[in-house]
Known about the structure:
By secondary structure, this protein is α+β, with helices and mostly antiparallel strands.
Amino acid sequence: MEATQTEGLDDLPPSAKLVFKVLEYNGPLTQKGIVQESMLSARTVRYALERLEGIDVVDEDVYFADARQNLYKLTEPAQEFTADESEASCTAD
Length: 93
């Protein structure tokens, strides 16, 4: 399943990859939080989240502090993918 996720992430537009990285570094955020952190437009963030949800990398939950908003977070397999990627990129000097 990880192979399909890596292929899916590689095929995404740069804005979706940026949203993925924002969620990776900052943890669960609302759409408004992602817009503020990424400095992308709200429409671009919505599109990126749709693409990320389409490959099952992002989950959408209810934001209990304000039920009008949703909370977006990386799925468990996506978190494992990022851990594997960071281990692979470490090199000894």
